[in-house]
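Q: Hi! First time doing this. I have a protein sequence and I read that you can turn it into a structure. Is that right? Here it is:
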Amino acid sequence: MTGENTRDTKPLFQRLSQTIVPTHYDLTIQPYLDKFTFNGDVNIHLKVCFEFDLLKFFFFEFNLD
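A: Yes, that's right. Below is the predicted 3D structure, encoded as structure tokens:
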């Protein structure tokens, strides 16, 4: 697998903006092995490098505290 895309596929990844840079991740995962599911939490520390007017988050089932 590479990060290249063809005419019929989406890219496998997208580069982050240089405006905000993640500096640290805290990840907690609670597995439920009997159900083959898990819950998790993530805290991301960000460094803001430039002023900006709009911040977009793309997510799936996301709660912001």
